[in-house]
Amino acid sequence: MSEHAAPRLTPVTLHGSAGELEALLQTHDPGEPQVTAVVLHPHPLYGGTLHNKVTHRVASTFHGLGAAVLRFNSRGVGKSAGAYDHGVGELDDARTAWAYVRERWPNARRWLAGFSFGSWIAARLGAELHDAERLLLVAPPIHRNDFSLLRRATIDKRVIQGTADDVCKPQLLHAEWPYWAEPKRLVEVEGAGHFFDRKLEQLATAVREQFEDVAATA
């Protein structure tokens, strides 16, 4: 990324199967990005939106590494059309976001990330993609959702987990983790709860450590 590149935050409308989806695109000017990222928000029935602080921090950290980053509200959230669909329609919304980024910058490398419920959607999308360089899951809800497809998925998986998370308990992740296919890497943020209260900078550091190697090749 050029040190003279100016950041830009642009509202974007995606055209999904349930209607229009509200989105924000963080880019750098001038020039085309060599890396893009899509970041998915937590559970919409519990206040999850593209403005969630963990989602925002992951996106801003990716942006700081030089990526053009897309966040969006899944169906029924904010100004997005439709209604909550138990992860089925939300996966289709994520496919729509991925297609938008791919079509806009077909030659860029691509990252995918999600927080909590968003990590479940990201895991399912990542398992079916052939053009994602790296997948980031923050606080995956092992207790609530099925992540067993990652036992076969060969996408490069990076996981960040708070050791004090009482929603997505780390011990449940530890029990499932050995079965996930390589390549993979788990980083734990000491003392962090589910929403990384007072630990957002440590979260950002963990994200940078997980992605700066591939960002450096941009």
Question: Top keywords for this entry?
Answer:
5 helices; 218 residues; 29% helix; globular; Rossmann fold; 26% strand; alpha/beta; eight-stranded mixed sheet
Describe this structure as you would to a colleague.
The chain has 218 residues and is an alpha/beta fold. The chain is built from five helices and eight strands, in the order βββαβαβαββαβα. It has a single domain, classed as Rossmann fold. An eight-stranded mixed sheet has the order 1-2-4-3-5-6-7-8. Helix 1 (53-64) runs parallel beside helix 5 (200-215).
Q: Segments where pLDDT lies below 50 for 5+ residues?
A: none
CATH topology, anyone?
Answer: Rossmann fold
For the residues shown, what is the average pLDDT?
95
Q: Which structural class is indicated by helix and strand composition?
A: alpha/beta
Would you identify the CATH H-level superfamily?
Alpha/Beta hydrolase fold, catalytic domain
Shape descriptor:
globular
Strand content: 25-35%
Number of strands: 8
CATH class: Alpha Beta
Tally of alpha and pi helices: 5
Helical percentage: 25-40%
Tell me the major beta sheet: 8 strands, mixed
Number of domains: 1
**Gyration radius, rounded:** 16 Å
Lateral strand order in the biggest sheet: 1-2-4-3-5-6-7-8
Tell me the CATH architecture: 3-Layer(aba) Sandwich
